[in-house]
Write a structure and sequence with these properties.
By secondary structure, the chain is of the alpha/beta class. The chain is built from ten helices and eleven strands. It folds into two domains: about 80 residues, Rossmann fold; about 120 residues, Rossmann fold, CATH 3.40.50. It is globular. The mean pLDDT is about 95. The structure holds NADP nicotinamide-adenine-dinucleotide phosphate.
Length: about 280
């Protein structure tokens, strides 16, 4: 029987419904959650991502603002923008859309956003807190993956998980979060010999490599949950994931599509973190 497809778009819509209730409740305390997006340069894909995030904010009642800096913006200009947003009480979450132009160091951003507004969860403080088991905000993409596993009723505790990819924004935090939930985690990357030898052990297989169709059916254990984080633009084929969807679907127990899988859940988790940030101001 083909794998059950975990519909990230539908789950994101459900999440928006619950977030709307929370923003309405915050409104009764005169708090409107706010998200500021900072975009440097005019990368077309980044513009689309930011526009989608702002649209989602409007849907759930989150105040949103875009701060567009030109491609040649100096580090000082970027830092001054972040400093202003750190001090703005209408802004509960700050998002700097990556990638930045080559002359701007992403670590600069990671250090400059106030941890209590770092709703992407990617600052050094937040990643360190995740390692210590006390996250301030869980990074959005791995949080979306865990939400999808939970929604599908897939147990994590005691299972074998294999994460392919070791980036600071997906692979590493993903591994930490699965470990925190009791999985035995293996992390693979481009230097891993015989990738299939590892992936075939996985009850939960997360692919986050940016390599179209890297994960083929022979690399997947029968009945596994296969989560495809990849977003790859392939000439003539539109957007495809890291998983060879149709053949893998015949082997796996659960699978996420691309598009319509992890992507929408990443945006939903960004909003969830922003609403959470606003709720914390009431308790402060
Ligand atoms: P990244 O920083 O480029 O990292 C890619 C990782 O994959 C690296 O650790 C790399 O290993 C590993 N890798 C590359 N080729 C491999 C191979 N042949 N075998 C095994 N491992 C391999 O990318 P990222 O930022 O983590 O993003 C990964 C993918 O997820 C991209 O397609 C990106 O667009 C997508 N993404 C999607 C969302 C979403 O919302 N759905 C969010 C973020 C990212 P090395 O470390 O050894 O180089």
């Amino acid at each position: 029987m083909p794998a059950h497809v975990i519909d990230g778009a539908a789950l994101a819509r459900d999440t928006y419904g619950r977030l709307k209730e929370r923003t309405a409740s915050l409104g009764r305390s005169n708090v409107r959650p706010g998200l500021a997006a900072v975009l440097v340069g005019d990368n077309p894909a980044s513009r689309i991502y930011v526009r989608n995030k702002m649209r989602a904010c409007n849907e759930v009642g989150v105040h949103n603002e875009e701060h567009l800096l030109d491609a040649g913006a100096t580090p000082e200009t970027l830092l001054a923008t972040l400093d202003k947003l750190n001090r703005d009480p209408r802004v509960h979450g700050i998002l700097v859309q990556l990638p930045l132009p080559a002359h701007l160091d992403p670590e600069l951003v990671a250090k400059a956003i106030a941890p209590e507004k770092d709703v992407d969860g990617l600052s050094w403080v937040n990643l360190g807190a995740l390692v210590s088991g006390r996250p301030v905000f869980e990074p959005c993409t791995p949080r979306g993956v865990v939400a999808m596993l939970d929604h599908a009723g897939i147990s994590i505790d005691g299972r074998e998980a294999v994460v392919v990819g070791r980036s600071a924004i997906v692979g590493k935090p993903m591994a930490l979060m699965l470990m925190a939930r009791g999985a035995t985690v293996t992390v693979c990357h481009s230097r891993t010999p015989d990738l299939g030898q590892h992936t075939r052990r996985a009850d939960i297989l997360v692919a986050a490599t940016g390599r179209p169709r890297l994960i083929t059916a022979d690399m997947v254990k029968v009945g596994a949950a296969v989560i495809d984080v990849g977003i790859n633009r392939v000439e003539g084929k539109g957007i495809t994931g890291d998983v060879d969807f149709a053949p893998v679907r015949e082997v796996a127990g659960w699978i996420t599509p691309v598009p319509g899988g992890v992507g929408p859940m990443t945006v939903a988790m960004l909003l969830a973190n922003t609403v959470q940030a606003a709720e914390r101001t009431l308790r402060a």
